[in-house]
Design a protein that fits this description.
Layout (H helix, E strand, L loop, with lengths): L1 H39 L4 H15 L3 E9 L5 E10 L15 E2 L6 H8 L4 E4 L5 H8 L5 E9 L2 E10 L8 H39 L6 E4 L2 E5 L2
Antiparallel strand pairs: 1-2, 1-6, 2-3, 4-5, 5-6, 7-8
Helix pairs in contact: 1-2, 1-5
Length: 230
């Protein structure tokens, strides 16, 4: 009887290990997919939403979302949900007004600010979280959660979150590392988009100054006229 029990335990552990490895591989494949996609096209609403869906299926979670930080006029740090994917039967939260300009400290999420701001992770069972966090997360039917920070350069830009609304899930180290890699790729893509936007804005301002200058400005190259202002 003892040997049969040990055999069953070994079989269950082996099946769990195989399932976790398969889930990690699927997450990394999804990360590789959207890394290639972001190299070909800019980060936009239409490009990021399918990525969240791919990540959600790969990680076998109920909900995947991205929040962006900002500072209010009074200097308070807040965060707002920007993107979301939900599995069938799971209640979306993208239109939840409580998740727009949520004040980190006032809402009781100082622990998250300290941890995520140091590039750490938040994960575990919501029932084990402090009361203030538990109240907000439980209202979204979250049982287990994993949150990874998104950094743009050296600045903490926001975070990507993964919810399990069906089971009290244990997040394995290999899953955590794969999902953190996803957050790093999104941060790099966001940084590139912001750099491109800044360059376009600079070019528009430069062109506006040149085109409205009182002096005539001419650019030639190889004996050919390339640009003349009005």
């Amino acid at each position: 009887f003892r040997s049969t029990e040990e055999f069953e335990l070994e079989r269950e552990e082996r099946e769990l290990a195989i399932r976790l490895l398969r889930r990690r591989d699927n997450i990394l494949k999804a990360v590789h997919l959207f890394t290639e996609r972001f190299l070909r096209m800019p980060l936009t609403d239409s490009s990021i939403e399918p990525i969240l869906e791919t990540l959600g299926h790969a990680a076998e979670v109920s909900r995947v979302y991205i929040f962006e930080n900002s500072t209010r006029r009074d200097g308070m740090l807040v965060t707002s949900q920007r993107y979301e994917w939900v599995a069938p039967g799971v209640t979306p939260q993208i239109d939840n007004p409580d998740l727009q300009e949520l004040p980190w400290h006032e809402a009781g999420f100082k622990r998250w600010v300290d941890t995520l701001g140091r590039n750490g992770l938040i994960y575990g069972h919501v029932s084990d979280f402090p009361d203030a966090e538990n109240e907000i997360l439980s209202a979204q039917e979250i049982i287990s959660i994993m949150v990874a920070p998104i950094f743009v350069g050296s600045q903490w830009w926001g975070f990507i979150g993964f919810d399990d609304c069906r089971t009290a899930r244990e997040w394995s180290p290999i899953e955590i590392e794969a999902l953190k890699t996803a957050a790093n790729v999104i941060g790099a893509a966001t940084q590139r988009k912001e750099a491109e936007d800044a360059l376009l804005d600079s070019e528009k301002k430069y062109r506006l100054v040149v085109e409205n200058a009182n002096e005539g400005i001419i650019v030639t190259q190889d004996g050919k006229l390339k640009f003349v202002n009005h």
